[in-house]
Amino acid sequence: MGDYPKAFSYYEKALKIQQQSLPHNHPDLGASYNNIGNVYKNMDDYPKALSYYEKALTIRQQSFSSNHPDLAMSYNNIGNVYYRKSDYSKALSYYEKALAVRQQSLPSSHPDLAMSYNNIGLVYYDTGDYSKALSYYEKALAIQQQSLPSTHPSLGASYNNIGNVYDSMGDYSNALLSHEKALAIRQQSLPSNHPDFATSYNNIGSVYYNMGDYSNALSFYEKDLAIGQQSLPSNHLDLGISYNNIGVVYKNMSNYSKAHSFFERAVQNGQLSLPINHPDLQKWRENLEIVKKKL
Fold first, then answer.
1. Where are the TPR repeats (predicted)?
2. Within 10 Å of residue 97's Cβ, how many Cβ atoms?
3. Average confidence score pLDDT of the chain
4. Regarding the domain with residue range 1-63, which homologous superfamily does it belong to in the CATH classification?
């Protein structure tokens, strides 16, 4: 985790000096506002992040041509905040502005174009428009295949995203194929306890679960949990999700004592990591009550 207060302090000092010594629409001021916006975004303070990103954008609109890459960066950053706030229509609008600038100003195989296609794909995926999500993810992947080494983690992320779409569409064979490609890349490019491994194992487990192949689902969910236990604090929400996933598999295999044990751990985790009325915690409690009656 970055030292955000320290970063903020230095960026603020730089900004004060620039405000005294530079014209009000100088590009360096835009860069400083953008940097402070990044800190606020990483601290999940979205109103302040938006405020600084919009100041950066205003300066960049005044001082750069309409197809300057820094304008695309500003549009993309504002889109990221709206995406995190789940304001998908505004996120899409800004991501499309970033893409339009990048299409005008960058070569067709530039990684920033892939980033824009990927971001638009994320919005369509989260709003349930799977065919559009798949189309944009595939555009991102095609650029990455041209511009990046074959084992670059960004390729792994794209295969992972494509796998998620196929899983959501019920196309489990293509989902598995894509997630296995993501896993293979991650095995070559990342340390063995990297969180992206846990993501791959979880997603492959999810596909097997959806196919009704509970023994394979269990195997991959357990690999996901093992990495989480090595790399995350014991009250991290991802561990609660892992405990619940394993509990659900055991429940479906009619192994109610093991299901009970994992649902109990999920609830204990959720009580530490979630608000008391959070839907996930309520669901985990329901799961625990259901298997209690089966014992």
1. 30-63, 72-105, 114-147, 156-189, 198-231, 240-273
2. 19
3. 95
4. Tetratricopeptide repeat domain (1.25.40.10)
Using CA atoms, how far apart are residues 272 and 166, in angstroms rounded to an integer?
33
Assign residue 254 a region (left: φ > 0; alpha: ψ between -120 and 50; beta: otherwise). left
| Dist CA 256 CA 252 (whole Å) | 9
Residue ranges covered by each domain of the chain:
1-63, 232-295
CA distance 170 to 166: 6
- Give me the mean pLDDT over the 162-184 stretch: 98
- 32-59 tens-digit pLDDT: 999 999 999 999 999 999 999 999 999 9
Long-range contacts of 260-267 (CB under 8 A, 24+ apart): 260/288, 260/291, 260/292, 260/295, 263/287, 263/288, 263/291, 264/288, 265/240, 266/240, 266/241
Residue 9: its pLDDT value, please? Answer: 86
pLDDT number for residue 2: 65
Residue 27 near residue 69, CB atoms below 8 Å? no
Distance in angstroms (rounded) separating the CA atoms of residues 248 and 145 = 37
